[in-house]
Amino acid sequence: MSQVRVGLLGIGTVGSGVWRVLQRNADEIARRAGRPIEIVAVADRNVERAQEIVGREAIERGVVVTAEAAAVVARPDVEIVVELIGGTSAAKALVKAAIAAGKHVVTANKALLAEHGGEIFAAAQERGVMVGFEAAVAGGIPIIKALREGLAANRIEWVAGIINGTTNYILTQMQMRGIPFAEALREAQALGYAEADPTLDVEGIDAAHKATLLASLAFGVPIQFERAYVEGISAVEARDIAYADALGYRVKLLAVARRRADGFELRVHPTLIPKEHLLANVNGAMNAVVVKGDAVGQTLYYGAGAGSEPTASAVIADLVEVARLMNATPSQRVPHLAFQPGELVTLPVLPIGACRTSFYLRLQVADEVGVLAQLARVLADEGVSIAAVIQKEDGVAEKGIAELVLLTHESEERRVRSAIARIEQQVWVRGRWAALRVEHLQ
């Protein structure tokens, strides 16, 4: 069979990995796809760097390197467009132009799909082309394929994952070395794990983009990023991580999508996870996702969530799938969001106040007899019961003040928040609060 011709938009970290792996493993990939896959055109704003990556031999062979991404999309010989430029404005226009021209698309752009995926998938469905996005979630981990195909027999109950390597690296350093967030962030930036502006990572937005896609694949619902609850790690203190450790937990930025009778939870936030759970032991910049299905139980997917060649692995997996199925009728292909387009259901995303978790609470109080009893009474009035308490006087700067750390039993979040609001009004409260959710993932 003839080769599959690809236009590559962006040859930065991931794009260069795609180029290298395709050249290095060309024969193996062709054996899997049933035909050779070859990049015939590359677009990048830095043409000189792109030419260096592509190499003189490939350019002499006819590979075109240009600064004009739209020109690559418009080439009549390009059958698949790989979008790796990022962002949502230019990328959306290019992806939609490719679809309109009848070209298949492969992308690693989770922000684009989380914010505009419904529109893009609808356009692709109408035009009869495929959009592959394995690399958009958890880098080289094949979680999209697992949800779309491997777990198709299951009613997915929940998905929970560590799906941002930057925050996991930061929290791991805080855990292992007791350093503050700001220092761990600086180290992550120096090592290239964090951007100069780390907001998308440390405030949980990147993880929420990915969680939104996982929820749609798991539950067969439209993409609803704007309804996700998002909380980052910038307010997590080293002492909270130390207290969590003493109580038998690790702190991770956790993405959770949980099906309930009245809708589903879609949330990203720092979370205490029991030390014995597999997710609690995912360290450094690694990612992991746990999926709970009614038939299979819990399954774990672990690996590199970012990086040049791990992410390229997922991009090329999509290229292989498209190459295999590009001549098949659309009805024979796996639906973009795992469920047939007409079978998506509208389930409400539950507000964070309706979610049920246990809580870790830390507060400073007057070191007086009866304070703990008063605190417990306020919590009980709101239907929140205490599971464990740590009280420390040492390490508190001001005399006459004690630091209390509580673990609650599971309860509705609005009840916990109501109790916190009442406790903040008490005369015996001193200093700042910390409140983190606890997930046992059972």
Would you write up a description of this structure?
- The chain has 442 residues and is of the alpha/beta class.
- It folds into three domains: 4-141 and 308-342, NAD(P)-binding Rossmann-like Domain (Rossmann fold, 3-Layer(aba) Sandwich); 143-304, Dihydrodipicolinate Reductase, domain 2, CATH 3.30.360.10; 356-438, Alpha-Beta Plaits, CATH 3.30.70.
- It has 16 helices and 17 strands.
- Strands 7, 8, 9, 10, 11, 12, 13, 14, 15, 16 and 17 form an eleven-stranded mixed beta sheet that branches. A six-stranded parallel beta sheet has the order 3-2-1-4-5-6, with helices on both faces.
- Helix 6 links the parallel strand 4 and strand 5.
- The longest helix is centred in the first third of the chain and has 18 residues, at 110-127.
- The chain is elongated.
- The model has no long low-confidence stretch (mean pLDDT 95).
Task: Give a quick precis of the structure.
It contains 16 helices and 17 strands. By secondary structure, it is α/β, with parallel strands linked by helices.
What's the SSE blueprint?
Elements: E1 4-9, H1 13-24, H2 26-33, E2 37-43, H3 47-54, H4 56-61, E3 64-66, H5 69-74, E4 80-83, H6 89-100, E5 104-107, H7 110-127, E6 131-132, H8 143-150, E7 156-162, H9 165-177, H10 181-190, H11 199-202, H12 205-219, E8 229-230, H13 238-246, E9 249-260, E10 263-274, E11 286-293, E12 297-304, H14 308-325, E13 356-366, H15 371-381, E14 386-392, E15 401-408, E16 411-412, H16 413-423, E17 429-438
Parallel strand pairs: 1-2, 1-4, 2-3, 4-5, 5-6, 8-10, 10-17
Antiparallel strand pairs: 7-9, 7-11, 9-10, 11-12, 13-15, 13-16, 13-17, 14-15
Helix pairs in contact: 1-14, 2-14, 6-7, 7-12, 9-10, 15-16
